[in-house]
Amino acid sequence: MANHRQSLKALRHIALAHCRGGHPDLAALARELGSAVRCHADGLDALAARARVGGTPRVRPLRTGAADLQLLLIAWPANHVSALHDHGARWGLEIPLHGALQIEAWRRQVDGGDPLAHGRHWLGPGDALWFDADQSRLHRCRNLSGREAALSLHLFGGTPCQGLAYAPAASSPRQRMPPSRPAIAGPLPG
After folding, report:
1. CA 143, 145, 151: angle at the middle one, nearest 5?
2. 78 with 28: CB under 8 angstroms?
3. Fewest CB within 10 angstroms: 33, 73, 153, 174, which?
4. What is the DSSP string of 57-118?
5. H-helix or E-strand containing 85?
6. What whole-number distance in Å separates Cα of residue 63 and Cα of residue 129?
7. What is the number of other CB atoms lying within 10 angstroms of the CB of residue 88?
8. CA geometry: angle at 31 spanning 30 and 34, to 5°?
9. DSSP code of residue 6
10. What's the chain's Rg over C-alpha atoms?
11. Is residue 86 within 8 Å of 141, Cβ to Cβ?
């Protein structure tokens, strides 16, 4: 059984090996990271059990040795929903290590109006979602567990820049963003 330090070291080694030449083959990187997450499940579960998460996510940068590469370990509180954001003109990859995340995709309108929901992805340990630099995508992440912290690894590359955050307009006459938590309408029949 691997401990959590060995597990993180293995994931970091894979990420850095793929990113030596600049922009990696994101599909190949996702496959290799996913395989490593499944092989190191015990160590990553132990790391998640040690994570002390309050009301906001805890972000731990992992060393990359490159100014144009960012590797982040994020511990998500139970039921936490991030703000709607993008990562500028950078490529990226997100992979849960423990727990499950929902990634909501959004798209900007040509007329500059409020963003519109575009789709949802559900990711468990070892599942990855990636985007290229030319795909400036709005998204938000949500920990699907109501009780446990989720743990994920995020890799971003390209020219460092600030991501853009968006919030729904308070005075908007029509709601375009679905509620972030489902409401219970009543008991299920049967």
Report:
1. 50
2. no
3. 174
4. -EEEEEP-S-TTEEEEEEEEPTT-BPPEE--TT-EEEEEEEES-EEEEEEE--TTS---EEE
5. strand 84-85
6. 22
7. 16
8. 80
9. H
10. 17
11. no
Nearest CA to 69 among 113, 112, 16, 105?
16
As beta bridge partners, residue 182 has none
Distance CA 30, CA 127 (A): 8
CA distances from 100 to 55, 76, 106, 141, 167 (A): 18, 10, 20, 10, 24
What sign does the CA torsion over 16, 21, 26, 27 have? negative
Per-residue pLDDT of the chain (190 residues; tens, 9 = 90+): 458 888 999 999 999 999 887 788 999 999 999 999 999 999 898 888 887 777 888 899 998 888 888 999 999 999 999 988 887 778 889 999 999 999 998 888 888 788 888 889 999 999 999 988 766 678 899 999 988 999 999 999 887 665 666 655 444 433 344 444 444 444 444 4
Helix (H, G, I), strand (E, B) or coil at 75: strand
- Token couple for 90: 């950078």
Q: Based on the number of CB atoms within 10 Å of its own CB, is 142 exposed (0-12), middle (13-18) or buried (19 or more)?
A: buried
Q: Residue 81 carries which DSSP code? A: B
Nearest to 36 by CA among 6, 62, 63: 6
Write out the two tokens for 29: 């990187």
Q: 103 with 121: CB under 8 angstroms?
A: yes
Instruction: Answer positive or negative: Cα dihedral of 115, 117, 118, 122.
Output: positive
